[in-house]
Design a protein that fits this description.
Chain lengths: 488, 171, 100
């Protein structure tokens, strides 16, 4: 293989390189700051990410680079933007949160940026090796971030559960990859796609590989019955990390899911559509039903994120540009609305677990009308009420399911949405209709960073709800090449 | 002849793996894991991948297992203080795993290689190490670089988690 | 004559033992060791496929796996140390601080 065949194109991985560089910069700057001023690192990260955001948006090259390992197509550019948005929000709300829980160490931002790099590598991977390495970079960073409050029992406990199940799922995923490799003789997605069409439907290696890879991804997106780690890891982790985990890591896993299943395994779709159908339906119902009984708001949002994963999975099944692009659109909207909700949660959480219970939100509307209003907006968006982005996203996914004749799945999706209204409205009911238990308890003030995060999230949620067309078109354009993948 | 060696290695590997998960003393488990990993290295030799065998011995048996033994010794996890070293749901779990491996085994044995063979036949693999080195720095250069970030992240992460913070949140 | 199936069955056996270990053992360090068994079983099957397919992909993948799982062990043991510091024991089923 000559150097020209390799197509070493640094521009195609520019966003990844820049975010890695930013992480290293933060790591070095950390040495020169005393513990009082660690928040400066957060501002450096934010400034850096804001510069990288437009670059990530435009870095597109039509050809696979680095020996067909990396695919910097519009699809990965779209997801890079989602990851950077998620990282921006998480860093923004981390600065005050870390001060509050007294964990002021600068490495936090560096590891968060490395997790972002891992996600970006996953989304742009054109080869299973690259995909796996990116996934591990993301996962390892998250194990550390979840355990970051090293003196807090729940943080460590959640991290341990996340670690053991995460490593187990990596093992299952790898085992699946090894069988797919045994089937096709290559780990390159384009190569696999070429073999997975010619009457390969019954090949046992391929069936085994697809099933195991699907299970591995389902662990990462926390689909039922592979969700066991999620509620504990979400509850134990520092709240900004929980937000990043639920938005960023889920979007990255879905990006990989879409790329692998729609490009590489498209030729043998009947093999996996039944499995995904079942998992999707079970996840939607399970997440919505279990969320009802939750008393802790973070756990409630954890189960709600499980239910959302189930709904997003519908878009994998439909196998057309409408379904796949609505997955991407949903993840973009989800980044804004979920980040918004978690910003409010992070604001009201105090060291030692106060402010985590849903009953702590009683009477919030009387004491903090602005924040109660925004929280209601985010919760209604998560529930899928117009005119928010949550509604349009759910609408596109369910419409694509109906177009593809998945009527039962659409019905289950609507039912799960109806059930989910119950627990989202419960919080709103508490905020507006109930008296606070304790007026004496002072509420934390929202400082500058929270206000920026809240307003940005609210703006994103509303704009995506009212004027979705350009973003949907963008997702459509990005996903289109996947469906004539076999042509090149 | 090769077959005989394979059966010996495989038998030792599986038996020592079972010892790893069934013995009470964590030090014994770690030693049996070393035995098991050495058999895996031997299997790599049978698969004409001496470089993998060397890496296996250096990294797994050398670095990783020393790390494990170190953790076991330092934290004094040697013998489990309670009588119970297996979960209360251990029985059903074993049944489920047995069922799972039966299914996996059925599919694995039914399959056979259908893809066209590549260019790395026995003759090409005689220069195994050279071939791997060359491809790591050409075809696989990007994941190779990413792995360096993975290692850096793990390094920072492990240090951050374990180093004790002084009161007040400083270093 | 050694065939691919020999290696696949060995790999499956180690994989199953590893998964069983993760599920049944209470001691976290043994759970971590079982995870290593799983990664090694995958490596055997990748190396075997690589040999019988006469391609290099699998062999290179094994190298990446070994490196990444070494990094994973480092994080795993760091978390184990944290658990030990808080509880003075490392039993999985005593980690039940969260319910729901």
């Amino acid at each position: 293989m000559t150097l020209n065949d390799l197509n070493i194109n640094l521009a195609s991985v520019l966003p990844q390189l820049l975010v890695t560089g930013l992480g290293l910069l933060v790591l070095v700057l950390d040495l020169f700051l005393d513990k009082k001023s660690k928040a400066a690192l957060g501002y450096v990260s934010i400034a850096g990410l804001l510069v990288i955001l437009p670059i990530a948006f435009v870095t597109v090259s039509p050809e696979a680079s680095f020996g067909k390992m990396v695919m910097a197509d519009p699809f990965s550019a779209f997801f890079n933007v989602v990851f950077i948005i998620a990282a921006l929000f998480s860093v923004l709300i981390s600065m005050d949160y870390l001060k509050k829980v007294n964990v002021q160490r600068g490495e936090y931002y560096c590891i968060m940026l490395f997790a972002t790099v891992g996600m970006m590598i996953m989304a742009s991977a054109a080869d299973l090796i690259n995909l796996y390495v990116g996934l591990e970079l993301m996962a390892l960073s998250f194990y550390v971030l979840v355990a970051y409050r090293v003196d807090e029992r729940r943080s460590v406990e959640g991290a341990l559960k996340y670690f053991v199940l995460g490593a187990l799922s990596s093992g299952v995923l790898l085992y699946g990859i090894s069988y797919v490799y045994g089937f096709s003789g290559s780990t390159n997605l384009a190569q696999i796609a070429r073999y997975a069409v010619n009457g390969a439907g019954g090949n046992p290696f391929l069936s085994l590989g697809i099933a195991l890879i699907a299970i591995g991804f389902c662990f990462k997106i926390a689909a039922f019955p592979f969700h066991m780690w999620a509620p504990d890891a979400y509850e134990g982790a520092p709240t900004p990390v929980t937000a990043f985990l639920s938005v960023g890591s889920k979007a990255a896993a879905f990006a990989a899911f879409l790329r692998v299943f729609i490009t590489a395994f498209s030729g043998v779709r009947p093999q996996w559509s039944g499995l995904i159908w079942t998992l999707s339906a079970a996840t939607m119902v399970f997440g919505s039903v279990v969320a009802i009984s939750q008393k802790n708001i973070v756990r409630m949002l954890a189960y709600s994120s499980i239910a959302h994963a189930g709904i997003i999975m519908i878009g994998l099944l439909t196998y057309d540009t409408a379904g796949a692009s609505s997955v991407m659109y949903y993840l973009l909207v989800y980044a804004f609305m979920n980040m918004g909700a978690f910003t409010v949660v992070a604001l009201f959480i105090r060291d030692g677990g106060a402010g985590e219970s849903i009953s702590d939100y009683k009477g919030l509307a009387a004491r903090r009308p602005g924040i109660a209003f925004l929280m209601s907006l985010f919760l209604l968006a998560l529930a899928g009420i117009p005119p928010t982005g949550g509604f349009t996203a759910k609408f596109f996914i369910l419409a694509s399911a109906i177009d593809a004749h998945y009527y039962w799945l659409a019905v289950i999706g609507v039912l799960a949405t109806a059930i989910s209204l119950f627990f989202y409205l419960k919080v709103i009911f508490y905020m507006y209709m109930k008296e606070p238990d304790d007026y004496q308890q002072p509420l934390p003030e929202a400082d500058f960073t929270y206000n920026v995060a809240l307003l940005a999230a609210a703006a994103g949620t509303l704009i995506l709800g009212i004027y979705p067309a350009p973003f949907v078109d963008m997702a459509m354009e990005a996903i289109k090449p996947f469906f004539n993948f076999l042509a090149f | 002849m090769e077959q005989l060696f394979f059966y010996i290695f495989a038998a030792i590997a599986v038996i020592s793996a079972i010892c790893v998960i069934s013995l009470r003393n964590a030090v014994h488990s770690a030693v049996f894991l070393i035995v098991c990993l050495l058999q895996v290295a031997a299997v790599y030799i049978l698969l004409r991948a001496p470089f993998l065998a060397a890496v296996q011995v250096f990294i797994y048996v050398g670095a990783v297992m020393v790390f494990f033994l170190f953790a076991v010794m330092v934290l004094d996890l040697g013998t489990e203080k309670l009588k119970q070293h297996i979960h209360s749901q251990g029985g059903p779990a074993v049944v489920i795993v047995a069922a799972m491996s039966a299914v996996l085994g059925y599919y694995a044995l039914k399959g056979s290689i259908t893809a066209p063979l590549g260019e790395y036949n026995e003759a090409a693999l005689a220069r195994n190490t050279e071939v791997i080195g060359r491809s790591l720095f050409t075809q696989y250069i990007f994941p190779f670089e990413v792995v360096s970030v993975v290692l850096l992240a793990a390094l920072i992460g492990a240090v951050v988690l374990v180093s004790r913070m002084k009161a007040g949140g400083g270093r | 004559m050694l065939t691919l199936n020999h290696f696949l069955i060995l790999s499956l056996a180690l994989f199953s033992v590893g998964v069983a270990g993760v599920l049944i053992r209470r001691n976290i360090i043994i759970v971590l060791m079982s995870l290593e068994l799983i990664f090694n079983s995958v490596n055997i099957s990748l190396a075997a496929f690589s040999y019988y397919l006469q391609s290099l992909n699998g062999t290179v993948f094994v190298i990446f796996n070994i490196t990444v799982s070494a990094a994973e062990v480092a994080i795993g043991i760091a978390i184990l140390v944290l658990v030990y510091r808080q509880r003075r024991n490392v039993y999985v089923d005593e980690l039940n601080g969260m319910k729901g």
